[in-house]
């Protein structure tokens, strides 16, 4: 049986008609998802991805789709598109921003008006103001997506704070991070009944002491925002590469996925992009 050489892990944030940074339009997102189906790709669960890293046979054309933070538009637009094409994705939740209340309309419910979706910059302003319901998911919507099989949910900390930037000492920073892990795990356990071994770093920052602490809390699969590397069989589960998906059509998207997974082109591309970034810096 043929097995995957590399599994690209893709990073999304928003799927929304609102324009702005880290936002993919519903039209382009659907073209990307439809393209995966037409080209015969398999979207893995996080456990299936963990099995791949451990050496278990995995379909050759496999990807892992991930979303960060837990925005309302993931329910309104991404969920119906994934459901339509029968694919699966993951959301790393900032648990302290997820609210209570009934399920709101999504795009598959055409008879009901859709909620207004704030842009990414508006979402961050709402975070700062402590008014997140119009920007973020509710636990009822999390449960609905989970039951539909379109999304699974894992930790992205409790507040998404870069404590290394606001703490006076490293000990203070680590004390805050410990509380982040504790609070996130408690809410996931309360609402989902379980906490997985998968965790995504907020704003992509991590250090050796962060990694050790995450592992102490049972998180073994640690997802970064570092794009220029390959997730191969027997790769370090504490350093999982992801690349950001741009707001482009299926043609660009499928080429980027193919490049990321190729045993020769992929490493050459990553080396060139890393050099280019360093040169610009």
Automatic annotation (TrEMBL):
The NodB homology domain, residue ranges: 61-281
Assigned keywords, A-Z: Signal
GO molecular function: hydrolase activity, acting on carbon-nitrogen (but not peptide) bonds
Keyword Signal on entry: yes
Origin superkingdom: Bacteria
InterPro entries (alphabetical): Glyco_hydro/deAcase_b/a-brl, NODB_dom, Polysacch_Deacetylase
GO BP annotation list: carbohydrate metabolic process
Listed Pfam families: Polysacc_deac_1
Protein known as: Polysaccharide deacetylase family protein
Taxonomic placement: Bacteria, Pseudomonadati, Pseudomonadota, Betaproteobacteria, Burkholderiales
